[in-house]
Every structure is written in C-alpha cells, then in structure tokens.
Amino acid sequence: MTLTDDTSVMAASVPPREPATRWPRVALAALLAATAVLYLWGLGSGGWANDFYAAAAQAGTQNWKAWLFASLDSGNAITVDKPPVSIWFMALSGRLFGFTPFTMLLPQALMGVASVGVLYAAVRRVSGPGAGLIAGAALAAMPVAASMFRYNNPDALLVLLLVVAGYLTVRAIETGRTRWMVGAGVVLGVAFLTKMLQAFLVVPGLALAFLVAAPIAFWPRVRALIAGGVAMVATAGPFLALVDLWPADSRPYIGGSTDNSLLQLALGYNGIQRIAGRGEGPGMGHGPGGGPGGGPGGEAHVFFGGTPGIGRMFGPSFGAEVSWLLPAALTGLVALLWWTRRAGRTSPLRASLLLWGGWMLVTAAVFSFMDGTIHPYYTLALAPAVAALVGICTVELWRDRHSAAARAVLAVMSAGTGVWAFVLLGRAHGWQPWLRWVVLIGLLAVAALLVAGVQRWGRFAAAVAGAALILGAAAPAAYAIETAAHPAKGPGAMAGPAAAHADLGGFGGFGGPGGPGGPGGPERASDNVALQDLVRATDNRWAAATVGSMTAGSLELSTGTSVMAIGGFMGSDPSPTLAQFQQYVDDGQVRYFIAEQHRGPGGPRPDSGEAAEITAWVTKNFTARDVGGATVYDLAR
C-alpha cells in the first residue's frame, strides 16, 4: 500500500484480511483478562461511591415500583435525576447476590470489560485484529474508564450501549442491510433511557458514515436511516408514555423536572440547560457564584468543567481524564481522511474514519462549549472514539511504513503523545516525576527512528513499534492504575492521583475530606450511630424526611430504611408540596424530620420554594432535639 497512490488498499472497498492465526484470540483473551483485573481489583473498597445512585439501587432491591422508576427511596417519594435503566442492573445484582458495594458495582465493571471487547470487534472488522487490540487496550487504560467503570453513575452502561451501536453501524455499512441500522436504533433508544440526550451525540457520526459508504443506492440508505430513527423512538417512547400515563399520585415524582415529566427532564435539566446553561432551578445547576458550575464568586470550578471553550478538552478539568491520546487521534484522522479523499464511496476505511471521527469531533465540540452543568467524567463517552482512531490510524499507517509520508505522520503522533503526556504528568505536582521523562524521551526517540527509516531494519522495526505502543500507553495506564487503587467517593469522580487535583478549591473537593462525599464531622448521617438507631426503630413508610439527598441517601444506605429527600438532589425540586407533606405527617407516613446537615456549595439550598415552606412549618410546629449532633424533629402527633 502507498498512501500517496490513489489506487491504494486504503481506497479499496474490501477491508484487508489478516492470515487465519490463533494469536488474535489469545491476545484478546489476555486483554479482556487484564481489563477485568483492573476494573474488579478492590471493587467496592471505596464504599457506596455516589450515595445518590447507590440509595436508588438499594431502594430497587426493596420495592419493585422503586426499581421501575429509579426512586431514591423505597417509599417512592422522588426519583433520581436520570432514567432508570442503569439503576435496574445494579438493583438486580443486589437482589441476586445481596446488596453490597461490590455487588452494586459489579455490573459496571463487567460493562467496562464488555465495552473493550465490543470496541475490538468493531475496529477489527475494518482494520484487522492488531488495530482492534490497540483500540481495546487504549480504552481499557483510559483513566476516565478506570474511574467510571468502577463507579455507579449511568455512564458505564451508556458507553457500552454506544459502542454496541457503533459495532452495529459498522455491520450495516458492510452489508447495507436495514436490520443492522434498526438494531443500532434500538440500542440508542435504550441509551436514551440511560442518560437521555447525551446518547444522541454519536448519531451524526454513525449516520454520516452509513449515508456515505453503505453499498446500496442513495434512497435505500435514507430509508434505512429513517428505520433506525423510528426504532430508536419506538424503544424509548413506551417508557416515556408509561411515566406520563401512570397516575402521578401513585408513582414517585420525576426528580430534576419542573412538571413531573420525564420528557421535560430530558429536554430541560438534562438537555438544553446542560448545553446553554441557566439560572437557579432543579438539581445542581450553576454554582453558588452564579457562573457555570462556578465556585464562590463565579469562579469556574474544575469539577464543573472549568471555562467553556476550544481548549477545555486539554484543560485541568478534562485533560487527564481522556486527552492523553487525543493529539495522536486527531493527527491520524486528518492524515487518513486526506489520503482517502479519492477512495471509492464504499471504502470501509474512510467509512470507519467518518464514524469514529464524527463521534469524537461532535462529542468533543459539545462538551467543550457546554455552558451548563458538566463534569469531567462525561468524557468517558469520548474515550471509545479516541481509542478506535488511535488503533485504526496506527495500524494503517504502519502497514505503509515504507512511505516517508506515513512514517512522518507516525512520528508526529509519537512525538505529540510524548510531549502531551509530559505536560499532563507535570500537572500531578510531583507524582511519579520519572515517568514523564521516560515517556517523553522514549517517544521522541521513536519519532526520530521513524523519520530515519526504521522500516529498513527488519526485526528492529518491530521492536520499535512495540516500544512505541508501550510508551504511548504508559502514562494513561499509570493514571488508570492509580485511579483503581484509590476509588472515588461522593457525588463525583475524577481520575488520577490526588496530587493532580490540588487545584479543586472552592467546593471542598468531591470525595475529599470534608467534601460532600468525603469523611466529615460527627454530624454526617453515615457516622451518626444515634441517628441511625433512631430511624431503624421506625416502621413508617418513610423513617425520616430531610431536605436534599445528601443526608437522605447516606442514612438510607447505613440503615436500610426509607428516607424522603425533600426537593430531590439539591432540595430545589417542587416535591412534595407543603400540603402533601402535611398530609403524610397527618397519616403517620413519615416519623422524623432531620434538619439539613450540609450547607454550602455541596449541600441543599432550601432558600425558597416547597423545601423552605416545609422546613418553616416543621420548625414552627414541632420540637427539636439533638441526636448525635443532628437536629431532629419528631413528627408523631
């Protein structure tokens, strides 16, 4: 193959076939085993991870209605602020094996292993097993993957479903058969019921690749895409209809919404508001300073993505999560798209570049310029595309290593990866300082050898290629191992060593000491034995009620009781109303009211609305007492 020759294998419509050998199977088995060890090692040792979703998973083990709707409590007062599908898997695992941190997180880890395997299969179909293995290894070693495939947010299931949709689209491009696109649509419909509109960020790349390259006429291609869209709506639609048709007074309130509607949640809090930003409203919203996810005084906070803009993917918030191989992926994508510009319409390689490149560019652009709530771990959705492009471009360029142009691009990819790893490791404030120099010098040396003509040196060329792969993966893999060794705690997760997050400031640090999810003082519900004993002794529908989910989730997990989170996650949802709460109290359905335990950027904000009215009514009509440092009101008449 010659990259500068328009009749090259790259432009062919039939992908290259590797000789039938056993090594790909053995290598794949080794990759999946290593991935399983990384993701299962010490799983659950960090406790319940995000109490918010853990409490919903526990409620799903106690009550089937809570399981169906992903209610935050088994009394079914309010749901979490996402659709229920990811909660279903964690709750079912708890029902089967007993509910512990390990059994809750087990499905997440297995989803990670499956994602690596499916990505290998998708890339292999076009560029061979070598490219598939590089792509799978790159995904497995991505720090954000080691974080989120061991965590209980919905992102693990979302990414598995997106990778499956990518694989099905690759099959559809090969054959032109509508059934593969319908399958992709079904999977994306389930992905919508996992994390709503974020599932659709991959659609432009998948649709463009099929529309350009499927080996059928234009209008059949259009009809196949329409069929996939219909399948997507038909998959997600029934659950949306179920929520709307179910009597509102016999199901939990849809957390995060303003009108108790799952569709409004998708389009509002989890949709337009995430993209464009907003003022005060349900859920996390803007930071207390009024800026997008800001810290005090409007400071753009690292955990909320920092400042929107073209450099966000490489900044202190997102850089160490997913950008290690992003320069190499971008370089290879641009080069191969240029060299395949005159390839036949059905070129599998160009179709693959359009698919994964479209996925990467659209997702990165949306994440970069989002002005609403965004967190670093969202970049897990970007990781499969980056990994796939690195695998495809590396192997395709190496196949043409006798071309000076191909070697030059590989050299740029190698040097760029080394320099960027040096920069990212330098942000870790002294963590393993030797590693950044080894990676930098090694990859610069590889780049020099490529330019010098390493292809002429026989077996030494293979050794150089192997060294490049090891050095390129060393830095993100080291971060991934460090991440697995120190599991995230609290309502958020960031990958890598703690030294890399020294600039968190202003929020107390999610998962850090004194932060919303970290070890605090004796007032925390998870540490308050007297408070736990008090609520365990009740047999009410809700043992207690409190504003926001911080205390509610922690108390539910430590006692196994049902605790009402007034106002949902941040205490700002309009549920329950004062009249509803008063009726619950009159009926004896809720026993205690616990005054808010966490005030500040990470705690509830019941300054107005229903939560404030309920708090005022309770404090006026009932007597407070101290229980292990917590202020508790007995609501029994």
Task: Report on the architecture of this protein.
It is a single chain. By secondary structure, this protein is mainly alpha-helical. The protein has two domains: 18-44 and 104-248 and 306-483, no CATH class; 520-634. It is built from 22 helices and five strands. It has helices at 23-40, 51-62, 64-69, 85-97, 101-140, 143-148, 155-175, 178-195, 203-213, 218-245, 262-276, 319-322, 326-339, 348-369, 383-399, 404-426, 433-452, 459-485, 529-536, 549-559, 578-586, 609-621; strands at 542-547, 563-566, 590-594, 624-627, 630-634. A five-stranded mixed sheet has the order 2-1-3-5-4, sandwiched between helices. Helix 1 crosses helix 5 (101-140), helix 7 (155-175) packs antiparallel against helix 8 and helix 7 runs parallel beside helix 9. The longest helix has 40 residues, at 101-140. It is globular and about 90 Å long.
Poorly predicted segments: 4-14, 279-300, 504-522
What is the gyration radius calculated from CA atoms? 26 Å
Share of helix among residues? 55-70%
Shape: globular
Q: DSSP strand (E) fraction?
A: under 5%
Q: Tell me how many strands there are.
A: 5
Q: What is the count of distinct domains? A: 2
Number of helices: 22
Structural class: mainly alpha
Strand order across the largest sheet: 2-1-3-5-4
